[in-house]
């Protein structure tokens, strides 16, 4: 009897395999492997200094892997330049929001626009998500509140037509209402089919929006599983994350 062939698993949007990353001679990532599927939200959790930001920097080619591989959208980008990686459809919302402080919101948005193979977002759609932003267009970014800057940073990532958005501690320093808005935006991106990898200290918020979670410690992945498992299993969550 011939076996029914299983459908091939759909390739991950992002795949890290056995990544080792160094700052000069100091190793920060040890054999890190992780995947984010198309349209999947994945949380990357762990204590300070665990290697979460370094993982994002490795994906973006800012601190490239010394060994192992990073593939995005079926292409090896391990040694690609950061601008090529962005051009291929990885958006980034950095923890310092990295918008140009002396430029207006409008200018910050205009220079973020990119064409990729993924869906293009318009400014109008960004205003639908962040209604306040339309009225801030002519303000210089240095005069914005933390929450307003975060809206601009997320809109910049969307205008770059991403297939994957990397968020580095998006709720840091924001009021609870704004944190909720950011998490709602992540859920909206998922509904739009955009993959998300989110680094967060705010474990509860991240787990509520994520499909799966990885926990890092001392540069290694120490746990991988459904987000619901960490939400529901207090003992496991305390043991891995102390919260
Ligand atoms: N520019 C750098 N030069 C040298 N070592 C660094 C640099 N950036 C980070 N490290 C080290 O790499 C390790 C991982 O740091 P990383 O910032 O990736 O952790 P993290 O999990 O993002 O923590 P945090 O939540 O504090 O940002 C730490 O030991 C840190 O001291």
UniProtKB/TrEMBL annotation:
InterPro entries, per database record: AAA+_ATPase, ABC_transporter-like_ATP-bd, ABC_transporter-like_CS, BCAA_Transport_ATP-bd_LivF, P-loop_NTPase
Entry's Gene Ontology molecular function annotations: ATP binding; ATP hydrolysis activity; branched-chain amino acid transmembrane transporter activity
Keyword DNA-binding annotated: no
GO biological process, one term: L-amino acid transport
PROSITE patterns: ABC_TRANSPORTER_1 (PS00211), ABC_TRANSPORTER_2 (PS50893)
Span of domain ABC transporter: 14-243
Family the UniProt entry places it in: Belongs to the ABC transporter superfamily.
Name of this protein: Branched-chain amino acid transport system ATP-binding protein
Source organism per UniProt: Acidovorax soli
